Amino acid sequence: MLTISDLKIGTNIEIEKEPYTVIKSEHTHMGRGGATVRVKIKNLFSGKILEKTYKQADRLDEPDLSRTKAQFLYPQGDSYFFMDTESYEQFPLSADSLGQKASLLKEGQDVDVLLFQNKPVSIQLPSKIELKVASAPPGVRGDTAQGSVTKTITLETGLELQAPLFIKQGDTIRINTDTLEYVERV
Asked: What whole-number distance in Å separates Cα of residue 153 and Cα of residue 30?
C-alpha cells in the first residue's frame, strides 16, 4: 500500500484494476487541515491523463508490474512493434501508450518494457540517448549578447527540438528523454 508521501513523479499506482503512472505531483498543507497531494496521472494502457486529489488518510494500491528487455523493430500505422529479447516474441504498443517516447525510437534500439499482469503496457528509455542530426539550418551570427541562442533542428527520428547554433547536420547529440531537451554534442 502506498501513502500520499509516496506519490512522486514516476510512481506507479493501480486504480480500478488499471495501472497509472504519476506525471505531476503537488503537495499542499493548509494550516490546521491535513495535507493533500494533487497529482496528474497517466493510464499506461490508453494514455489518458487524469487529475486527482488525495488526502493524508488515503491509501493506494501498487500495480503488479514487472520489467523485461526488448528491441524496437519498426512503426506501422499507429502501432510500434517490439521484440522480447528473451523469448523473441513480437508485440505492438500503441502510440498513445508510448506518448512522447515514440519520437525518440530508432530501429534496433534496446528498451525496458513495463509489463502489467504479463501484458506489455509501456516502455522505459534510458535517461539520455544519442541521436544523429538529420537537418539543421545554418547558424546566423547576430544578436547573441542576450545569452544562449538556439535554433530548431530535426533528428533522425523526425523529432524537432531547440539546440545551440554550433550544431550542424550529421552531428550526434545527446538528449534528455524526460524533458526532450538538448544536453550536449557527442
From this structure: 45
Rounded CA separation 65/122 (Å): 11
DSSP-based three-state secondary structure for 101: helix
Q: Name the amino acid, one letter, at 11.
A: T
| pTM of the complete model beyond 0.90 | no
| Domains within the chain, CATH numbers bracketed | 4-55 (2.30.30.30), 65-124 (2.40.50.140), 128-185 (2.40.50.140)
3-class SS of residue 18? strand
Give the Cα separation of 184 and 37 in Å (integer). Answer: 35
What cell numbers appear for 158 in the block? 523526425
pLDDT at residue 145 is higher than 60: no
CB 80 within 8 A of CB 129: no
- What grid cell was written down for 167? 550544431
Which amino acid type is present at position 94? Answer: S
φ and ψ of 140, to 5 deg: -105, 125
